[in-house]
Amino acid sequence: MEPEQERASIGTYEKLGCMKKDRLAVLDVRKEATLYQSDRQTGETKGQLPEQNLIRKAISYYQGADDVDQHHLNRSDYNRE
Length: 81
Hints:
Blueprint lengths: L7 E4 L3 E6 L2 E6 L4 E6 L6 E4 L3 H19 L11
Antiparallel strand pairs: 1-2, 2-3, 3-4, 4-5
């Protein structure tokens, strides 16, 4: 995987996050989104104005995962008829 393709998905009971490069988009149950930028060298994290492209990607990753789970597409016995 190329470095520009790397991403991480994280979640808690009420919040979901998608990290790409040095930016973390956090979605919460109140339909709010927050964007953070971190410096890996210093560990410093700053809040940023939400970037709609990253927010939309985070939403789509979790919607896709939910669809896979709801339709049982992640099961090895899934019959593809």
